[in-house]
Amino acid sequence: MKTILQTTEDGSHTLYVPELDEHYHSTHGAIGESMHIYIDAGLRHCLSAEINLLEIGFGTGLNAFLTLLEAEKLQKKIHYTTLERYPVSVSTAAELNFSDFTDPSRKETFRMLHTAAWEEWVQVTPFFWLKKLSMDLHDFLMIPQDEKFDVIYYDAFAPEKQPEMWRQEIFDKLYAFSRDNAILTTYCAKGVVRRMLQSAGYIVERLPGPPGKREILRAGKKV
Within 10 Å of residue 117's Cβ, how many Cβ atoms? Predict the structure, then answer.
């Protein structure tokens, strides 16, 4: 997909997809949005000593980068599985300025996320392992999983842009792939999505959203 680099209100970059008329991140602030939804509301609430994490939508690599940095702060080992059918090119990723706003010394670490081999585990830091899978979510959910997940970042494009990504059977499968006390977070707070998560078995909370968004959802698999 063709993308156009744009600057969001907090100064960090996002990519715009003309074909879908959609941005990868909030125009109100890419880093602020990702921190709020996936790190603050999701990762930091996981009590597991080692975390097995699934991301739906690798995209720019921002969620993975912030998670890597957080793993070091928490001193927790994280195995990060991410799905992406249409990866951003390495040259496009090199233009993104996320490290400027987090830790300028980690620019090369961010680049490594995009240059890492696909379809295999790559240890990027002592606390962070990455496995990028070039497949869509439907194919992934058909594969028996040896490990279940402690945290799920549901970061697909919006339901009106990709309705096939927001179906009951998907959340049913994700629930089955979730460990006890697992956490799923998503920016989408639509009532239909909340009800699908509840129907799958999750306990769902509405939480205040980041700038420009009233609410987000956090779903938990309670024992």
Answer: 10
The CATH-assigned architecture of domain 34-220 is 3-Layer(aba) Sandwich (3.40)
Residue positions counted in the chain:
223
Residues 9, 85: Cα–Cα separation, whole Å: 28
Q: Which residues, in sequence order, are CB contacts of 170 under 8 Å at separation 6+?
A: 137, 138, 141
Question: Domain extents for the chain?
Answer: 34-220
Nearest Cα to Cα of residue 193 among 213, 223, 170: 170
Compute the 3-state secondary structure of the chain and give helix, strand, coil in percent, each to the nearest 5.
35, 30, 35
> Do 32 and 212 form a contact (C-beta atoms < 8 A)?
no
pTM of the model: 0.96
Q: Which of 97, 121, 129 is nearest to 111 (CA)?
A: 97
**Tens digit of pLDDT per residue, the chain (223 long)?**
799 999 999 999 999 999 989 999 999 999 999 999 999 999 999 999 999 999 999 999 999 999 999 999 999 999 999 999 999 999 999 999 999 999 999 999 999 999 999 999 999 999 999 999 999 999 999 998 888 999 999 999 889 989 999 999 999 999 999 999 999 999 999 999 999 999 999 999 999 999 999 999 999 998 7
